[in-house]
Amino acid sequence: MCCGTKALAAVGAVVLIAVAAYLLYLILEIHVLPGIPLTTYGANTKSRGAGSWALVTGATDGIGRSFAVQLAKNGFNVVLVSRTKAKLEELSREIQSKYVGTKTAIYAMDFSVASASEYEGLGRLISHLDVAVLVNNVGTSHEMPETFLDMAESEIERITNMNVIVTQRVTKLVAPKLVARKRGLILNLGSFTGQWGTPMMATYAGSKAFLIGWTYALGEELRRANVDVQLLNTFFVVSSMSKIRRASLMIPLPDDYVKATLARIGRSTGALGRPFTMTPWPAHAWLDWATSHLTPAGLMLSRSYDYNLNTRKRAIRKAEQLAKKQ
Ligand SMILES: NC(=O)c1ccc[n+]([C@@H]2O[C@H](COP(=O)([O-])OP(=O)(O)OC[C@H]3O[C@@H](n4cnc5c(N)ncnc54)[C@H](OP(=O)(O)O)[C@@H]3O)[C@@H](O)[C@H]2O)c1
């Protein structure tokens, strides 16, 4: 072997070892390495009620409900904020009877029309509580996929307000408490639509893309105050919003999704290389990694367009069938 060939073989070996090491680390990130223990943020299962508080928005259904129940299970007291008072009361009773000793506080507010005084009311409710965790979960999407030019102005405002403005207002209200106690956690419910850009869901995708940049900035600012901020890059989960009822490997139930999240706080999982971001569900994590590193972005856009066009056609057919029956 001449010197040139030897050098080339050595470079090849180094590259192979680096790729193998990277892939091994990715597997460990997604499947093995544990997250920050929730006791770090004041969870206490030994003496329920003595722990710190977690505040969840949109707490009465889907992913938010699972966060509320599982944060209580893990030893937090919980502030439940959502639209429907009766559902909040029922959830509060369920948590108190399942995890005896856990304290709950409920606050009913419709974020789509909430006034300054309602935010102030929420501020008063939490003013004496040791809130350490905020889950910015509440969000809304398009009723069905549609092109941006077909969207009603009211729909644009509804989605942008809920996903962009509400998230910031709640964070302005709650995050100073986390900073003051010098340890805290903020989880922002992101979406793959924000990462890819998703035709026929332009405003929802844009609002979730906002959360990506906003989380980067907030994460760096609050890191200095010992508050961990993470965007949860979420693909489909069974829920009323996704309108998906059956779970599969790629579409977890909210409980399974949240369990995977709480076990991986602080990790990147499939979002390796993107700060303050994780893709907690393992199958989503691989999809995230593959689409970020191996698939041309333009291809994802055209596939999403076709997918959403079909979803729209199906939704219209279903609505027409329903109308005929009535
Ligand atoms: N599911 C998915 O596939 C998926 C994928 C990516 C990202 N996400 C994100 O995950 C988050 C939760 O989604 P989800 O699928 O769990 O939703 P969901 O099942 O529809 O639950 C939404 C929750 O928010 C509450 N809510 C809705 N509008 C409200 C309003 N105007 N004011 C106050 N509370 C309101 C609902 O209260 P009521 O009980 O009174 O209705 C309910 O508790 C959203 O930010 C969403 O964008 C979801």
UniProtKB/TrEMBL annotation:
It is a single-pass membrane protein. GO terms for molecular function: ketoreductase activity; very-long-chain 3-oxoacyl-CoA reductase activity. It is found in: Endoplasmic reticulum membrane. The chain crosses the membrane at residues 7-28. Gene3D superfamilies: NAD(P)-binding Rossmann-like Domain. The keyword Endoplasmic reticulum applies. GO terms for biological process: fatty acid elongation. Pathway: Lipid metabolism; fatty acid biosynthesis. Keywords: Endoplasmic reticulum, Fatty acid biosynthesis, Fatty acid metabolism, Lipid biosynthesis, Lipid metabolism, Membrane, NADP, Oxidoreductase, Transmembrane, Transmembrane helix. It catalyses: a very-long-chain (3R)-3-hydroxyacyl-CoA + NADP(+) = a very-long-chain 3-oxoacyl-CoA + NADPH + H(+). GO terms for cellular component: endoplasmic reticulum membrane. InterPro entries: 3_ketoreductase_fungal (IPR027533), NAD(P)-bd_dom_sf (IPR036291), Sc_DH/Rdtase_CS (IPR020904), SDR_fam (IPR002347). Its EC number is 1.1.1.330. It comes from the Eukaryota. Substrate binds at S191. The active site is at Y204. Pfam families: adh_short. Belongs to the short-chain dehydrogenases/reductases (SDR) family. PANTHER family: HYDROXYSTEROID DEHYDROGENASE-LIKE PROTEIN 1, VERY-LONG-CHAIN 3-OXOOACYL-COA REDUCTASE. Component of the microsomal membrane bound fatty acid elongation system, which produces the 26-carbon very long-chain fatty acids (VLCFA) from palmitate. Catalyzes the reduction of the 3-ketoacyl-CoA intermediate that is formed in each cycle of fatty acid elongation. VLCFAs serve as precursors for ceramide and sphingolipids. This is Very-long-chain 3-oxoacyl-CoA reductase. It comes from Malassezia brasiliensis.
